Write a sequence for this structure.
C-alpha cells in the first residue's frame, strides 16, 4: 500500500461522544474500504462521495470494533486536495486505538503535527497566511480571537497584501517597459505617481504591522492586574468582576500568596484579570515571593486596577502602589464605600480614572467595567489584526523598502536605486502570502498544529 497515506485521530480529548479519524493521500479510499464495511454490503468505494455512510468498523483481526459512520472525499475537492477519508466512531480510547492500528496495518503511516494542513498548502488549497490563521483559530481562547482568525481564513489580510504587491509590481513592470522599449509608444513613467503609490502602500503596511502588538489581546485577553496593599478588598473585587467566588477571601491579611488569573468578557471584550498578593514588606518567604509576582503582574499588565480601602487613611503601602502606577493606564478603586469614608482626595486627584464602590455588595462594578473598556486598546472595531510575528516582521521590512523606493522616485535617483528597493518590497510581500518561502520557515509554521489537523 502507498505510504503516502497518512492517518491520525482528529477529534477532541477522549473519551468523548464522537471520535474522528482522518486519512489523506492516494490510496486512502482503499484503506478505508479494508477497515469499514457499509451495512448495505457494497464497498464504500462504490458509495457516493461526500456522503456519510453507516457501517461496521473492523479491528486488525477483522472483527467488528464499532458501528459507526464514514465518509470519502474525492480529491481535489477535499480539505487537503487529495483523496480523503474520515471515520466518525464512538469516542472510546479503545475504539480509536484499535481503528488506527488497523489503518496503519493496512498501509497508512501516522501523520505528523499539522501535516494535513501542510498538504492543503502544498496542493494549493490554501495560502500560507490562511494556514497560519487556521492555527490561530484552533488555539483561540476568546470569541474575538476566533472571529479575527476566521476573517483571516477568509483572506481578509491576504487580499489586501496581494493587492498592494500587485500595485508595486505594476509600477516596476511599467518602469522596465519604459527603459527597455524606449522607441515604443509607451506612456512615460510618472515618478510623482510612483512616489504617491509607494507612500500609500508604506502607510498601509505600517498600520498592518503595528496591529500585531494588539493582536495578543485577541487570543489572550487584555491583561488587568488588581493591585493594592493587603485587605483592601482585591480578591473581593476580583470575585465581583467574575460574578462568582474564584479567590479566597478572609479577614486575615496576606491571604493571597500567588497571582490568580481568570478570563472574563464584558461588552464583547475579553480581559485576563489577575488577583495579586498584597503589596507590603513580606512577613514570610512565601509572601515575599507572592509580592514579587504581584510587581511582575503589574509590569506586564495593560491596565492596572489600584484598590484602596476607602474607610481608612492612606498608608505607606498605598503610596507605594501610587508610585507603581505612575505613567500607567490605571483605574483607582476606592473600595468599601458602604463604611464610613476617610479622606481619599489624594487618590482621586492622582488618578483621572477612579470609582468608588463596594466589592462586597457588588455596587459600582458596572461603572468600573465601563472604565476598563474605555482604557482598552482598540481591538473591537472590526479591523482584522495581524496575529503572526512572521508576517508582522515582513510587513515592517516591506514598508521600509517601499519608503526608500518612494524617496528615490521623489529625488530622481538612478533606476537601480528605485528598482532595488521596490523589488525587495514586492518580494517581502510575496513571502507574507506564501510565495518563495524558505522550507524551514514553512515547517516551523506547521509544527504549531496538533496532530490530526
Amino acid at each position: 500500500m502507498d505510504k503516502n497515506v497518512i492517518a491520525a485521530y482528529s477529534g477532541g480529548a477522549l473519551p468523548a461522544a464522537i471520535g474522528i479519524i482522518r486519512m489523506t493521500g492516494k490510496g486512502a479510499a482503499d484503506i478505508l474500504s479494508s477497515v469499514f464495511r457499509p451495512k448495505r454490503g457494497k464497498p464504500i468505494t462504490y458509495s457516493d462521495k461526500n456522503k456519510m455512510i453507516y457501517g461496521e468498523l473492523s479491528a486488525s483481526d477483522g472483527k467488528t470494533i464499532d458501528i459507526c459512520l464514514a465518509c470519502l472525499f474525492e480529491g481535489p475537492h477535499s480539505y487537503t486536495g487529495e483523496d480523503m477519508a474520515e471515520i466518525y466512531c464512538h469516542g472510546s480510547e479503545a475504539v480509536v486505538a484499535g481503528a488506527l492500528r488497523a489503518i496503519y496495518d493496512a498501509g497508512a503511516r501516522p501523520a505528523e503535527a499539522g501535516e494535513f494542513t501542510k498538504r492543503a498548502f502544498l496542493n494549493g488549497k490554501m495560502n500560507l497566511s490562511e494556514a497560519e490563521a487556521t492555527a490561530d483559530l484552533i488555539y483561540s481562547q476568546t470569541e474575538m480571537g476566533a472571529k479575527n482568525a476566521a476573517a483571516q481564513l477568509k483572506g481578509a489580510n491576504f487580499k489586501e497584501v496581494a493587492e498592494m504587491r500587485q500595485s508595486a509590481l505594476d509600477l516596476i513592470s511599467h518602469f522596465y517597459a519604459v527603459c527597455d522599449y524606449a522607441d515604443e509608444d509607451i506612456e512615460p513613467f510618472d515618478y510623482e505617481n510612483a512616489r504617491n503609490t509607494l507612500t500609500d502602500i508604506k502607510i498601509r503596511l505600517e498600520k498592518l504591522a503595528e496591529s500585531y502588538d494588539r493582536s495578543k489581546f485577541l487570543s489572550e485577553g487584555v491583561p488587568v492586574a488588581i493591585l493594592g496593599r493587603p485587605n483592601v478588598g482585591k480578591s473581593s473585587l476580583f470575585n465581583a468582576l467574575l460574578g462568582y467566588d474564584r479567590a479566597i477571601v478572609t479577614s486575615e491579611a496576606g491571604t493571597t500568596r500567588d497571582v490568580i488569573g481568570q478570563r472574563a468578557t464584558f461588552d464583547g471584550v475579553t480581559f485576563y484579570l489577575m488577583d495579586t498578593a498584597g503589596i507590603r514588606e513580606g512577613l514570610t518567604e512565601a509572601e515575599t515571593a507572592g509580592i514579587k509576582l504581584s510587581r511582575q503582574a503589574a509590569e506586564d499588565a495593560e491596565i492596572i486596577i489600584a484598590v484602596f480601602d476607602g474607610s481608612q487613611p492612606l498608608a505607606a503601602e498605598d503610596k507605594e502602589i501610587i508610585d507603581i502606577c505612575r505613567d500607567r493606564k490605571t483605574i483607582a478603586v476606592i473600595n468599601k464605600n458602604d463604611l464610613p469614608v476617610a479622606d481619599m482626595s489624594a487618590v482621586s486627584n492622582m488618578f483621572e480614572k477612579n470609582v468608588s464602590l463596594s466589592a462586597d455588595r457588588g455596587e459600582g462594578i458596572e461603572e468600573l467595567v465601563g472604565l476598563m473598556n474605555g482604557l482598552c486598546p482598540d481591538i473591537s472595531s472590526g479591523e482584522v489584526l495581524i496575529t503572526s510575528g512572521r508576517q508582522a516582521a515582513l510587513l515592517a521590512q516591506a514598508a521600509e523598502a517601499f519608503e526608500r523606493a518612494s524617496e528615490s522616485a521623489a529625488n530622481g535617483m538612478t533606476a537601480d536605486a528605485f528598482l532595488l528597493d521596490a523589488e525587495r518590497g514586492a518580494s517581502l510581500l510575496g513571502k507574507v502570502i506564501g510565495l518563495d518561502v524558505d522550507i524551514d520557515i514553512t515547517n516551523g509554521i506547521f509544527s504549531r498544529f496538533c496532530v490530526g489537523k
About this structure: The longest strand covers residues 64-73. Residues 151 and 384 are 7 Å apart (CA to CA). The mean pLDDT is 85. Residues 134-211+386-445 form a domain with the Four Helix Bundle (Hemerythrin (Met), subunit A) fold (CATH 1.20.120.430).
